[in-house]
Amino acid sequence: MTPLGIIAGGGGLPVRVAEAVAASGRDVVVAVLDGHGDASAYAAYPSRAFRWGLAATMLAWLKEHGVHQVVLAGTVSRPSILSLRPDAAGFKLLARIGRAAFTGDDSILRAVMKVLAEDGFEVIGAQQVLAGLLPAAALLSGPEPDDVARADIQRGLAVCRALGSVDVGQGCVIQQGLVLAVEAIEGTDAMLARAGGLRREGPGGVLVKCVKPGQSRLADLPTIGPRTVDNAVTAGLRGLAFEANGTILLERETTIARATAAGVFLLAFDPEHFTEGTTA
What's the structural domain count of the chain? Predict the structure, then answer.
């Protein structure tokens, strides 16, 4: 079997993917996005760090190592075009991607995956490697959301869908029907920090995360983990609600234990049950 290539951003997900694949007996080759992933975490595998402007060189390097399948995993901040500083091959790749791809996170991912496919790579999702990464609909911890919390989840789903339709973010914080914060390029942790300073009296707010309308399920799915729970608690929230079968739950046992200890609910929800005009 040919090696699996991992294009690694930050966080623990690409590390877990590499470990799982290696444990299965398959070779792993890791291209680390410079400034996002930690190259030292992949010292056990053939690995190399590449900045965005050397993306074409990165793809050539993966091919040299016999890679045909790749996983895009980890957190990545979308670069500006001016920051890329591409080499000659990078200029050609940038022309294939096009400037329009840099208008949003999902648009650039779609363009990158199109280029990967044109170059003979097959992109697979991290969930195809790690079982149980996308929880099914269930209350995983904490008290059952009451009517106020359920209304906040419904409101949050509508807000997330509106944001996602213009390729902006995947999350928001709702408290008693008020939109305290929406996620843009700063990411979930920074959004939660901002929301904490805006909270109102009364029942705490809810973090809502869901997949963008039409988003590929192969990369950049909404993600929560122990740090998300910690930051939500610090922000005074009383629950985290995320789309079932579409959100990556990192360190499942630890995340659930943190939420349970803090007394906040952790709900993987079916969007059909929280869409405006339906009865949950």
Answer: 2
217-251 pLDDT per residue, tens: 888 889 999 999 999 999 999 999 999 999 999 99
Determine the Cα–Cα distance for residues 119 and 189; give it in Å rounded to an integer: 35
Listed residue (66, 83, 105, 89) closest to 183, CA to CA: 105
186-209 pLDDT, tens digit each:
889 999 999 999 999 999 999 999
For residue 231, the domain's CATH number is 3.40.140.80
Verdict on whether the full-model pTM lies above 0.85:
no
Same domain, 151 and 239: yes
Separation between Cα atoms, residue 45 and residue 25, nearest integer Å:
13
Q: Note whether residue 93 is domain-resident.
A: yes
Q: With CA atoms as reference, report the closest residue to 32 among 18, 47, 12, 44.
A: 47
Contact 191, 170 (CB under 8 A): no
Beta bridge partners of 242: 209, 268
Report the 10 Å Cβ neighbour count for 272: 9
Terminus-to-terminus CA distance in the chain, angstroms? 46
Domain that holds residue 238: 138-273
Q: Give the SS3 label for residue 271.
A: helix
Q: Can you give the CATH number for the domain in which 68 is found?
A: 3.40.50.20
Q: How far apart (Å, rounded) are the C-alpha atoms in residues 102 and 81? A: 7
Distance separating alpha carbons of residues 220 and 215, to the nearest angstrom:
9
Domain boundary at 110, 128, 146, which? 128
**Domain final position from 72, 105, 128:** 128
Question: If we measure between CA atoms, which residue out of 223, 216, 195 comes closest to residue 11?
Answer: 223
Residue-by-residue DSSP string for 155-190: HHHHHHHHHHHTT--SEEEEETTEEEEE--TT-HHH
